[in-house]
Amino acid sequence: MTVLGCTKKSAVNSLSNSPEDSLSSYLTKANDFGATTKKRQEYIQKAFNIVIEQDNDSLQRTNLFRIANRYYNLNDWNKYREIANIVLQKAKISRDSLSMAKAYSYLGDYYGSQGVSDSAFVNYFKSEKQYLNLKENYNASRTRLNIALLQFNESDLLGSEISVFKALKAIKGETANDIVYESNNLLGLIYNELGEFAKAIEYHNKALQGLDKAPTPIEFQSRATSLNNLGLVYQNLNKDKQAIPYFEEGLKQKQDILLYKPPLYAMLLDNLGYSRFKLKEKKGLPGLFYESLRLRDSLKLTTGIIVNQIRLSEYFAAQGDKVKASKYSNEAMITAKNSKNKRNYLLPLKQLAIIEPTKATEYNKEYIHINDSLQKADRKIADKFSRIEYETDEIKQENTDLTVQNRNLVYIFGGILILGLFLYIIKAQKAKNRELLYKQEQQKANEEIYNLMISQQNDVETIRVIEKKRVAQELHDGVLGRMFGVRMNLDSLNKFNDELASEQRDSYLTELKNIEQDIREISHDLSREKSDLINNFVAIVEKLLEEQKKTFKAKLVSSIDSTIKWDLMSNAIKINLYRVVQESIQNINKYANARNIKVEFKKGNNELFLHISDDGVGFNVKKKKKGIGLQNMLSRINECEGTFEIQSKKGEGTKIMVAVPIKKS
């Protein structure tokens, strides 16, 4: 049994500065190798409960990886996989390629531990490609090394060798002592299995020399690992005297090995015992085998248990105790069957053929059959790894092609969008130009109305001047002359007191009354003239309505509330109301075929109401609401901050109702 030099998830590297003191404390305690497994699991769960409530950001994903590392160090593979999947999903949502690559690597660890080599290879391969795309050379190399170890465990030795050199190539020119050590260590294991023992010793010595230059953390127990592997090469060379010092040197750090890597301690005990057994030394035997078996059994290391049981069978066979030899061989076979791994059958079958000669032919036949099937399976798994790598590259190429296609589609749609936006801008600009032209025409029309009002004002002013002259003449020639005559006659009558004088006085008083009445009439005329002056807007509207009556057959009835104070209203309101009346009458003349038209101006509380109705053919308001005439009227009333409503049905005439707030000019 051989192992690599480092565990992947170290206690030292897993600690970082966390903003939550409790989280940092839980993670630290979870990595206390001196605590019980149950206690460490409790701390990991508490840390997880804190982290899972955090936002999905890089800090949360980092903390989840730290929690996964704690489960890895406890060999709790199910929890390890669960956390890796959580991180993977969160990384995909956040499009965090680096975390995705790391999560794939962790899933590769899980499937590798469960013996599902194809799934492990797929995940490692995805991880490696992600790291290469991100130019994360160190992590890409680390993942390629994991692939190499997976291939080694599946007896794809040549594939493993190639993967190791790919891992070294990825970090060429960089400082990565841990990867260099593990690569040299794995190459030593590969060449040992291939029977190239000189190369195996060379690479294991390179690994040890690397440790002298750059020691690894104590929990890796890298030196003890390399010493065990070197001793194993010499053991395979049947140079057990040279092998034993390596095993003994490795066991000198008993406490640290038992704390951090108990499987390695069991392996060193077993290998030391076996080399002494081969040299027929009795020191520590069979105690070394028993101690190793007991430790492996507690760790549930199936393959190691079988090896120990076979070693005990060999030992007791050499001692002449065939009963115990047979007992341990059969126990090894039972353990192999329970493991459901055909590879574990080989050592028990080989040993049983020796222990039970009468059944040797049967055992050897089964051994050959299983060995052949395993060799075929090894070739298949090697081919499968190559096929997975090829198919993954094919998928990647397809994804690249799809990316190019998607990019081209984006360009096309982008071009169409820009063209559409350009056309929309042109159309919007034309609409703005039309609106500006309309406003200009409206302004021109308003100016015409204003000029009309000024002209009307001038006409009224001219009439007012003529009327003032007339009144002045009346006063001068009529009233003043008559008053002067009456005054002179009254002065002359003051000298007489007879009856005749009294009658004449009465007649002159009557004349004064007549003069008073004339003055009153002149005053009334002046009052009417002032009213006409003030209500010149009314005159303009009435002129429009008079023109309508003269030109068209329809009967027009108008009503203008005399209480409306037009002088308090702004010119803008007057102009817009005039235009609404004008537009409405034009529409009635064009389309309504009406016999009767009614126009009303009414005063309300702070509002002026305009109602225009006809008994014409009517129309569908919903279909006509977008007509330019109606839109113009609506626009004018909106400008006055008023309301505009139109009611009409076919055959029932039309009614327009306008309400505008009265604003002082």
From TrEMBL:
GO MF, one annotated term: protein dimerization activity
InterPro entries registered for this protein in UniProt: HATPase_C_sf, HATPase_dom, His_kinase_dom, Sensor_HK_TwoCompSys, Sig_transdc_His_kin_sub3_dim/P, TPR-like_helical_dom_sf, TPR_rpt
Region of interest (Disordered), residue spans: 1-23
Keyword Transcription regulation: no
Stretches with biased composition (Low complexity): 14-23
Histidine kinase domain span: 470-664
Coiled coil regions, renumbered to chain: 505-532
Protein name (record): histidine kinase
The organism of origin for this protein: Flavobacterium nackdongense
Lineage: Bacteria, Pseudomonadati, Bacteroidota, Flavobacteriia, Flavobacteriales
